[in-house]
Structure formats: C-alpha cells, structure tokens
Specification:
The structure is a single chain. The protein has 129 residues and is mainly alpha-helical. It has one domain: Up-down Bundle (de novo design (two linked rop proteins)). The protein is built from four helices and no strands. The protein is elongated, with a radius of gyration of 16 Å.
C-alpha cells in the first residue's frame, strides 16, 4: 500500500466525499428536501463516513484509526439502509437506488480492506516488540 501522509489521500475518504456531494444533490433535486427528519439523518450519515475516516487518521494510532474506520463503515451501512427508505418513499428510482447503494457498498469494502491491512500492520508491530 502506498504511503498515506494525509487523510485526503485515502481513496475511501475521497469516495465518501463524492458520495456526500451526491447525497446533497439528491436532496436539493427531489422532494426529499421537505422530509426534514430523513434528509437530516441521511446527511449526517454521509458526513459521518467521511469525518470518521479523517478523525481516525488524525489520531496517529493505528489501533485508533482502525476503530474509527469501523465507525465509518457502520455509517456507510446506515446510509445504505436510509437509501432504502428514500426508495420506499419514492424519492428515487430503483436505478438511482442501485447506484447509491453500490457507491456505499464500495466504500464499505474499501474500509474493510483497510481494516484488514491495519490488522496485519498492528500484529506485525506487536511481534517485533
């Protein structure tokens, strides 16, 4: 894995940022903007994915970073669940739902792979100590 010096270099963070913009555009362009509860929750979930990746990275500890990646992954799962609500309330089409869901799943997979990488790094460091 290439060296990552800033959280902005993390692909999952970049993807989460793009997904947040997509969620924002979705809210602005549909009746979802009038459903304040769902609108706010979906925005918070999308922000949480991006923010937890950044916050965890800035902690400077691989164990803490891993913990925050799990939180970000959980927020991506919450976001996928909320996309079902958006679909069920007929704010989006099946096709748009599939696109949004795929993006959130892609982020979840990247986060899971990053956690696996950190697990190996942590175990390798513990063996050397």
């Amino acid at each position: 894995m290439p060296r990552i010096d800033r959280f902005e270099d993390i692909e999952a963070w970049q993807d989460a940022r793009r997904l947040l913009r997509t969620v924002h555009d979705l809210i602005e362009s549909t009746r979802l903007q009038k459903n304040y509860v769902l609108r706010d929750q979906i925005t918070r979930s999308a922000v949480s994915v991006m923010a937890n990746i950044a916050e965890g990275f800035e902690h400077g500890s691989k164990k803490e970073f891993r913990r925050f990646l799990y939180i970000a992954k959980a927020s991506a799962g919450e976001l996928r669940a909320l996309f079902y609500a958006v679909l069920d309330f007929k704010y989006i089409s099946e096709q748009k739902h599939a696109e949004l869901n795929n993006e959130a799943e892609k982020i979840s997979r990247k986060l899971a792979n990053f956690v696996k990488y950190l697990d190996k790094e942590i175990k390798g460091h513990e063996k050397r100590s």
